[in-house]
């Protein structure tokens, strides 16, 4: 093993975790393409050679960060599924609030996708990771369908796509969304926005006869 490379397994794990945390922290502040190897090593308190040693490259480091983040999100979705089974009342509010909490806790993730997936040379390997999240969201709606909350005629794949579009598009489109509609991250994390999403998902847009009668 080359000089300077930690041989202790615990030290190796600590160095890898520090580099992953550094990548996450730097993405909070700047774009993926602008982050340098030197910045990553300095933020992690280690040598630049450790990035290639553990991850092969800067891209390998960020791809591993995506793997770690996806695994964390999958665990949170599994916990949400258990919560939906144990607490059947208010399932739409529960889903909106829990998933918005997950999404808004890591705004850097959308910045990374903007840089890597929507560029002239997109990183196609990243597409496998959102697929795992998609499967988790679809499973949640199938659970709601089995519980009689979601109408039987709905396609859960399409419902999941619509649901995530409502939640994720404003974040993927920042700062344009903020400029056009005046909705920044604070507004998208507000009780008013969450209540609006719940109202839209539960009652739709069109006034119906029953709601008119109830208002009279």
UniProtKB/TrEMBL annotation:
UniProt KW Manganese keyword: no
This protein's record includes keyword Lyase: no
DNA-binding interval(s): 36-55
Residue ranges crossing the lipid bilayer per the database entry: none
An annotated Gene Ontology molecular function: DNA-binding transcription factor activity
Highest taxon above the source species: Bacteria
UniProt xrefs under Gene3D superfamilies: Tetracycline Repressor, domain 2 (1.10.357.10)
Keywords: DNA-binding, Transcription, Transcription regulation
Domain HTH tetR-type: 13-73
Protein name as annotated: HTH tetR-type domain-containing protein
Annotated organism of origin: Bacterioplanes sanyensis
Lineage: Bacteria, Pseudomonadati, Pseudomonadota, Gammaproteobacteria, Oceanospirillales
């Amino acid at each position: 093993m080359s000089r300077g490379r930690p041989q202790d397994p615990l030290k190796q794990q600590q160095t890898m975790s520090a580099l992953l945390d550094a990548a996450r922290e730097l993405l909070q502040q700047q774009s993926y393409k602008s982050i340098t190897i030197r910045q990553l090593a300095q933020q992690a308190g280690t040598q630049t050679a450790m990035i290639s040693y553990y991850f092969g490259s800067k891209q390998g480091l960020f791809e591993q960060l995506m793997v770690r983040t996806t695994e964390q999100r999958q665990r949170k979705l599994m916990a949400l599924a258990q919560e939906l089974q144990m607490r059947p009342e208010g399932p739409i509010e529960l889903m909106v609030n829990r998933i918005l909490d997950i999404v808004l806790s890591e705004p850097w993730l959308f910045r990374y996708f903007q840089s890597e997936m929507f560029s002239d040379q997109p990183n196609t390997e990243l597409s496998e990771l959102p697929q795992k999240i998609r499967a988790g969201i679809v499973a949640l709606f199938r659970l709601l369908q089995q519980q009689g909350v979601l109408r039987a005629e709905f396609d859960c794949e399409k419902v999941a796509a619509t649901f995530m579009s409502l939640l994720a598009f404003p974040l993927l489109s920042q700062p344009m969304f903020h400029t056009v509609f005046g909705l920044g991250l604070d507004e998208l994390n507000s009780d008013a926005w969450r209540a609006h999403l719940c109202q839209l998902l539960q009652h739709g847009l069109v006034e119906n006869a029953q709601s008119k009668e109830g208002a009279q």
